[in-house]
Specification:
Layout: H1 17-24, H2 32-42
């Protein structure tokens, strides 16, 4: 997000801001469905969002 100059509100159509805040704080994991949505939004591979 920082690299692209995005704010949490820029992702509001994909994920509720409260969920995004929890994810960014490390309190919530990214689901496979959300990884797909984020990958489409950022035009990258969904594996980027799946921890190894």
């Amino acid at each position: 997000m920082e690299t692209r100059g995005l704010k949490q509100s820029d992702l509001a159509e994909i994920i509720p801001q409260s969920n995004l805040s929890s994810i960014l704080a490390g309190k919530r994991k990214i689901s496979a469905t959300l990884a797909g949505k984020l990958a489409k939004f950022f035009d990258i591979n969904p594996a980027v969002f799946v921890p190894t």
